[in-house]
Design a protein that fits this description.
The chain has helices at residues 14-32, 56-60, 111-121, 145-161, 167-181, 189-196, 218-227, 241-251, 255-276, 280-295, 304-316, 341-350; strands spanning 35-47, 62-79, 84-89, 94-99, 129-135, 199-205, 208-213, 228-232, 318-323, 331-336, 354-355, 366-370. It is globular and about 80 Å long. Helices cover 42% and strands 23% of the residues. Strands 1, 2, 3, 4, 5, 6, 7 and 12 form an 8-stranded mixed beta sheet that branches. InterPro entries: GHMP_Kinase-Related, GHMP_kinase_C_dom, GHMP_kinase_C_sf, GHMP_kinase_N_dom, HddA/FKP, Heptose_7-P_kinase, Ribosomal_Su5_D2-typ_SF.
Length: 373
């Protein structure tokens, strides 16, 4: 149907009035649709990484010491009435669109999101939605970005479907989507860190995870922030080869890999005690020991660039440091003696490693609903 033009001198016909009314109502409904939002923090891991990767926790029990930081994965969900699902990744500059009841293949196009939506759809009837996603670090950065994104996604889907999920259930569901449904290699700490937030000492056993929040004194936390330096190596981890190699060496009873993994548990305990007692010089030194033991787990964990950066940081005043994730790239974390952090940062900047400012984040997954008044 054709409508009359809507300029200043246009004739207002009944058809034009109806068209304007429908358009205004559609615009009003779009503005008044609820927005479901979520944010989940990224994390830095101090010790124990690798002991949360199966089959180690089932056989020997894993221990991880980690803390969340003020970098987040964000999710926004807006309901639709047409039964379509549209997902837009602001980081990747990618969007997908499909019917809520359609079978969707995992083809490399936002598979993480598709798998999360599919898993929740098994709990509730599929619905049309618009999803907007953004993360403060790319996958493979070593900060648990992919898992934080999955936690944020489950957070908005939970609220939209009014599901009664506890924090443990959210973290477990996020882990199942990544590791079981998609078969992505990795451990369990990232999903639990993003969901619970803060400083945590996490225990992993056969079919069980226990998150122990740590009561770190504020002065200890502030001093730790002042002396820790987070830098980006310039590249992310490529693929799952490091984790696969580490797991195979454990399965083959490689002596170095076994020693490195088991020492991670001891160091996680010692570093937890140092944090609780405010012994940060001890904590900083143990951070370096944790890195030396981590490298035993696989020769692929470090690279010449990482080795050189570590040596230069120590010479400039760092007590110890390590890669924050599986290795091969991503972010590195250094503990610097008081008064030397700027020198370490300057030396690493000369090598092309960019400093990333951060503070600790004490809250995990947050969700809220907003309706335009």
């Amino acid at each position: 149907m054709d409508f009359a033009p809507e300029g200043p001198s246009a004739v207002i016909t009944p058809q034009t009035q109806t068209h304007r009314f429908r358009r205004a109502r559609a615009q009003r409904e779009a503005w008044t649709q609820p927005l479901f939002r979520a944010k989940a923090p990224l994390r830095v891991s101090f010790a124990g990484g690798g002991t949360d990767v199966p089959p180690f926790p089932e056989r020997e029990g894993g221990l991880v010491l980690c803390a969340t930081i003020n970098r987040f994965a964000h999710g926004t969900l807006r309901p639709r009435v047409d039964g379509r699902v549209r997902v837009e990744s602001l980081d990747l500059g990618m969007a997908i669109d499909y019917g809520a009841d359609e079978h969707v293949d995992y083809d490399g196009q936002l598979d993480l999101v598709k798998a999360g939506i599919r898993r929740v759809s098994q709990l509730e009837e599929p619905r049309g939605i618009d999803l907007f996603l953004h993360t403060a670090a790319p996958p493979g950065s070593g900060l648990g970005a992919s898992s934080a994104l999955m936690v944020a996604l489950i957070g908005v889907l939970r609220d939209h479907h009014k599901l009664a999920l506890t924090d443990y259930e959210i973290a477990r569901l996020a882990w199942e989507v990544e590791r079981v449904d998609l078969g992505l290699k990795g451990g369990l700490q990232d999903q639990y860190a993003a969901t619970f937030g803060g400083f945590n000492f996490i225990e992993f056993g056969p079919g069980d995870v226990l998150v122990n929040p740590l009561r770190i004194r504020p002065t200890t936390m502030y001093e730790l922030e002042s002396n820790l330096l987070l830098v980006f190596t310039g590249r992310t981890r490529a693929g799952d080869h490091i984790i696969e190699d580490q797991t195979q060496r454990y399965e083959d009873s490689d002596e170095d890999a076994l020693a490195g993994l088991r020492m991670q548990k001891t160091l996680a305990l010692e570093m937890k005690e140092a944090l609780l007692r405010g012994k940060l010089a001890t904590f900083g030194s143990l951070l370096g020991v944790a890195w030396e033991e981590k490298k035993k787990m696989s020769p692929r964990i470090s690279t010449p660039v990482i080795d050189e950066a570590y040596d230069e940081a120590i010479r400039a005043g760092a007590l110890g440091g390590k890669v924050t994730g599986a290795g091969g790239g991503g972010f590195m974390l250094f503990y610097c003696t008081p008064g030397t952090r700027h020198k370490v940062a300057a030396r690493l900047a000369q090598m092309g490693l960019e400093e990333a400012e951060f503070a600790f984040e004490e809250t995990g997954l947050r969700t809220w609903t907003y309706v335009e008044g």
